[in-house]
Amino acid sequence: MRKSFLYISFFLCSTFCATVVAQDSTMIRKHPPKKDLSDKIFFGGNLGLQFGTVTFADISPLVGYRFTDKISAGVGVTYQYYHYKDRYINFETNVYGGRVFGRYNFTESFFAHLEYEYLNLETFDFPGKRIDVGSLLGGVGYMQHFGRNSGIMAMVLYNFTESAYTPYSNPIFRVGFVVGF
């Protein structure tokens, strides 16, 4: 007697959708299932807030692609608001930019990260003058998974091209999130 079973899977696409598949239990798969595009794409980024003498806000979303279980790469955009105010100085600027990154996973949780970041910002020594700053960042990170393709990560990065105009100093600590669908 042939047995059949029915399962329903849900996944997130541009709109919510459901797939219903009926499969005969006598069918035997000889090859592992291929990963869908949705299994290879991930989203994430960084959100940061700081208040006080220095007020800082960072919104940096990203999208990435898993080429293999070990190698992934992606792109992101960056917006930062920076305000420094004390008794003598009152400086405020908006920073815009983007980044391209690559990651190599040593294990499921530990990875190496390499990134080129390009930012456009107002200089503090010549207010009103905007410049472009490129940074080559590299380091290691740890990801704590809370789902098959999702998690929170922490990275320690070093800016190999640090300059007087780089908006942060070495080492750079980042905490972010990744959500895969």
Notes on the protein architecture:
This protein has 181 residues and is mainly beta. The protein has a single domain, classed as Beta Barrel (Porin). Helix content is 2%, strand content 66%. The chain has an 8-stranded antiparallel β-barrel. The protein starts with a strand and ends with a strand.
The neighbouring-strand order within the major sheet is: 3-4-5-6-7-8-9-10
SSE string, helices as H and strands as E:
EEHEEEEEEEE
How many β-strands, per DSSP?
A: 10
Per CATH, what is the topology?
Porin
Number of domain units: 1
Strand content: over 45%
Report the total helices: 1
CATH architecture: Beta Barrel
Helix content: under 10%
> What is the CA-based Rg, rounded?
22 Å
Largest sheet: 8 strands, antiparallel, barrel
Helix/strand structural class: mainly beta
Form type: elongated
List unreliable stretches of 5+ residues: 1-29
Q: Average pLDDT across residues?
A: 78
**CATH C-level label:** Mainly Beta
First and last CA, distance: 37 Å
